[in-house]
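REVIEWER CHECKLIST
Item 1: Sequence provided? yes
Item 2: Single chain? yes
Item 3: Sequence as submitted:
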Amino acid sequence: MAEEQTTSTLSTEALSLHQESVCIDIHTHFLIAGHYLKRDFSRRQKDTLHYNPFRNLLDLPRAREGGLNSIVFTAYVPSNPVKPGAQGRHESTLKVVQSYRRILDECSDHMIHVESAEGIREAKRDGKIASFLAVEGGHSVGTELSGVDKLYASGVRMLTLTHFVANKLADSSQSPYKPHKGLSDFGRDVVLRMEELGMIPCVAHCSDKAIDDTLKVAKGPVISSHGGLRRFHDIKRNLGDDYVRAIAATGGLIGIILWPKYLTGNIRCDLDQLLDHFEYVAELVGPEHLSIGSDVDAGTWFPREMRDVRDYPLITDGLLKRGFTHAQV
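Item 4: Structure as written out by the authors:
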């Protein structure tokens, strides 16, 4: 477990700035426990004595305490490596979306579904958490292009094209089996259809060639919602400098994961090592292309100074101490 830490020791400047700002996490996984275990997002989840992938570091009370006022909820169902285009994964994803809607209803006094940047700003003005819906893994599209339209109609506005194994759309960075040598023809059609509708393609987990193909096909912003940098831990799952630049050139975002394994290659890291990733992206392409993409509640844990999302102000404080201006933060 993380060492006990509170935000009470933060500077007044950091606390004030964090409260005034929109703090968004563009990749979270409460829906894993929220759907499969029917976990209640509105209630504070109990801390556990030992590591537990379903302990939940994100819930409504702790999001409020940490100033996390914009959350991308990511719907995920396991892929089928034997039948990567199985239609059943699409139907299962729509059931997870139903659970997302249930959570929204239960938290309607505090949270509202949004589908645009302006929706995020309106929620902030109304004192509510802006809730955004994404899907991880192109296998959730199913076997037909109409699956993209169904996901869009359900409120999904972001799709991570692949996951740990190749699917019908794209090859994965983490699997030696790369049948498409990048994006498949179907994957290209999916990216084009997403852009027609107004969905954002995410290349986290994609192989280098799949990222290349996505950047060639896409006309609008592309993001990498959760990952680290090869500059600090040289694995294919992380982004090299050229990919950071290329994604930024589309107007996209680089979401920095909070899991030490991707940040440093070790099971533990400290806050400074996390901030190294933030600072490097900001110096390389500008802070406007930088985001938190924690991957919280997907079986991951945070740097040792951070208990859970309550401690997101520590990131604000750390950036200020490194010379970031209020406007940059």
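Item 5: Key structural point noted by reviewer: Residues 1-5 have pLDDT under 50 and may be disordered.
Item 6: Recommendation: ____
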